[in-house]
Amino acid sequence: MIGTIANALAIIAGGIIGLLFKNIIPEKISEALLKVIGLAVIAIGINLMLSGENFTLLIISLVIGTIKGEIIDIEGKLEKFGAFIESKMKNKESNVALGFVACT
Questions:
Q1: How far apart are CA 8 and CA 10, in angstroms?
Q2: Do 18 and 33 form a contact (C-beta atoms < 8 A)?
Q3: Are 72 and 86 a contacting pair, CB within 8 Å?
Q4: Where are the beta strands (DSSP E) in 22-103?
Q5: Those residues with Cβ within 8 angstroms of residue 58's Cβ, 6 or more apart along the chain or in another chain
Q6: Of these four, 37, 40, 68, 82, which has the most CB atoms within 10 Å of its CB?
């Protein structure tokens, strides 16, 4: 539970930092950073997958989670919530909905 709370707080802090510095960091650097972070996530995932003991359980859990998520339309609900938050913000040009869905 503590890990979940820490993860949520890190996402919120990262979002706030991103909003504060989005005009300072050039687009070229921002795109390069996203690519590097993506590669790091893939490397960490492969490393953890290879060190895991219950690979079959992992695959079954991913399949069941995907089916459940599609049935109850989690992504659609998160997009609606992000759009609601975005509609309440003063800056109408922000992409809060996209950022919210991406980080969740």
A1: 5
A2: no
A3: no
A4: none
A5: 49, 52
A6: 82
